[in-house]
Amino acid sequence: MAQRIFDITPPISPRLGVWPGDTPASREVLLEIEKGATVTLSTLRATVHLGAHADAPNHYVSPGVAIEQRSLDFYLGPCQVIRANVPRGHRVIPAMLAAVPRLPRVLLHTGTFADPTNWNNDFAALSPELVDHLHERGVRLIGIDTPSVDLMDDKLLLAHQRIASHDMAILEGIVLCDVPDGDYELIALPLPLVGFDASPVRAVLRTL
Fold first, then answer.
1. Which domains does the chain have, with CATH numbers?
2. Is the entire prediction scored with pTM above 0.90?
3. Of 59, 90, 133, 166, which residue is the catalytic one?
């Protein structure tokens, strides 16, 4: 059977929702071939927490390492997509998982942030209990199809803090609506942005 690739990255445009108060994507065109220039040249301005992105520990703990210091091994290798039967605005607990986590990277499909261009505040998030459960099962990276592993109004960042205590990696903002549950190879490499607290990624899944 031929390998299939799922692109789980939302398209980057000014329409893509970002955390309220953060910097949306914008493009400044400096030169254009159509206007007589030799090349077309653009400048991108945006938050590093844009669309599918990897959080660095210095985003949620101090001291914490920046994204260029994170091992790429977190973001490359076998992963498992698991549906989580969770209501909007609630935290995922282990009993809500539709399958038993078996692989070192787990991507959770909550379906609670269905349109990345239409922001909704009541997306689901992770419970500290679930983070502990996944860590005990050998999970090193947790991904979720929402803007954050914590709830919109959580100022304590309970899931982020528990993830930090286990030195796990975070992948947020992925799109899993067209991906069947199951086992894949994850490729979601962050850029080596020196000192930065996150990096956008081109996240894809390949069937095994």
1. 5-11+48-207 (3.50.30.50)
2. yes
3. 59
Q: What is d(CA 170, CA 149) in angstroms, rounded to the nearest whole number?
A: 8
Q: Residue 199: beta bridge partners?
A: 54
Per-residue pLDDT of the chain (208 residues; tens, 9 = 90+): 689 999 999 999 999 999 999 999 999 999 999 999 999 999 999 999 999 999 999 999 999 999 999 999 999 999 999 999 999 999 999 999 999 999 999 999 999 999 999 999 999 999 999 999 999 999 999 999 999 999 999 999 999 999 999 999 999 999 999 999 999 999 999 999 999 999 999 999 999 8
Q: What is the torsional sign of CA 47, 50, 56, 62?
A: positive
Residue 102 CA to residue 165 CA, distance in Å, equals 21
Residue 59 annotated in active site: yes
